[in-house]
Amino acid sequence: MTSRSDAKTGSKTFTWLVTLAAAGHLVFVTAMGRLRWEHAAADLLLAGLAWAGPAPRRFLQGGFPLWLTGMLLDNQWLWLGLRGRVHTGDLWELERVLFPCPDGTTWPAYFATRTHAVLDFFCGFSYAAYLYEVFGLALLFFFRKHPRFATMCWAFCLLNAMGVVTYMLYPAAPPWYVMAYGPGPADLTAPPSPAGTARFDALMGISYFAKFYARNPNVFGAMPSLHAAYPTLVVWQSWGLGRSWRVGTIAFAALVAFSAIYLQHHYILDVVAGVVAALAACWIVEYALVRRESPASATVPVMPGGDSRA
């Protein structure tokens, strides 16, 4: 009886917490003059699900970190003034030394002069689909009532927090910036660019990437590559679903990693850092949840996606 009462109290507390978070964010973006329809939709949906009943609330208990992630990335402008010196030419040179290509430059610059419509299509498609892969797997876990739903959502949130913190401590210009503005002191007024993804837009007769990058609040957030990190997180989280999932997700992660370089958005160093960040975020969340559920016998999974809690 006591545990049921405690659960009910905890559920009500969570409902009000989520409602206040949604309302607070909506008031904030309105006051700052940055309100967009996506903000209103996300905040109203969040508050609505909190009061819609047990099933929607169960989704929120795992999915709330997805909303937190969106707010974190959307409001990067708040702390851009705190970031350190932007790395431009030094990162370019380090990449060139560590991963030399045939003409002595960096691989992003090498591919910029060796494009092909087939590569433009597949690389552009993967660069657009990388985020939908994460949300698709999260929804699959939710509807299957899989215990990995909450684990994946919190790992995703932590991964993005790690990325944003790194952007502040080590702001880095993407390859397209150095190719356009040179390796000297950073031009902090430089607008975001779709870079190689503009070829996908032209090929498909759309403006998806032009609009997507026009809203990017932080040009100097190349290290680590979250484009490479997200598919890596999916590989870890879906590992236990079987061989076909492993092959498919690893292949997609490899395509996105190549695309990040081919489309001049990232160096190989950024991609490696993104993969490491994703693995670290998954490991940390896995360990934290295991410790929370069974402190005495907690063990960290040896394999990605391994449910040591089972």
State the end-to-end CA separation.
Answer: 27 Å
Secondary structure class reads mainly alpha
Mind describing the biggest β-sheet? none
Q: Kindly provide the radius of gyration, computed on alpha-carbon positions and rounded to a whole number of angstroms.
A: 21 Å
Please identify, by name, the CATH architecture of the largest domain: Up-down Bundle
Q: Residue-averaged pLDDT, rounded?
A: 85
Number of domains: 2
Please characterize this protein's 3D structure.
It is a multi-pass membrane protein. One of its GO terms (cellular component) is membrane. It is found in: Membrane. This is PAP2 family protein. Keywords: Membrane, Transmembrane, Transmembrane helix. The protein is mostly helical and 310 residues long. The protein has 13 helices and no strands. It is globular. It folds into 2 domains: 60 residues; 215 residues, Vanadium-containing Chloroperoxidase, domain 1. α3 packs parallel to α7, α7 packs across α13 and α11 runs antiparallel to α12. It starts with a helix and ends in a 17-residue tail after the last helix.
Write the layout of secondary structure elements.
Elements: H1 2-31, H2 37-50, H3 54-74, H4 89-98, H5 107-112, H6 117-143, H7 148-169, H8 175-181, H9 197-204, H10 208-214, H11 226-238, H12 243-262, H13 268-293
Subcellular location: Membrane
Transmembrane segments: 14-32, 121-143, 149-170, 247-265, 271-290
Main location: membrane
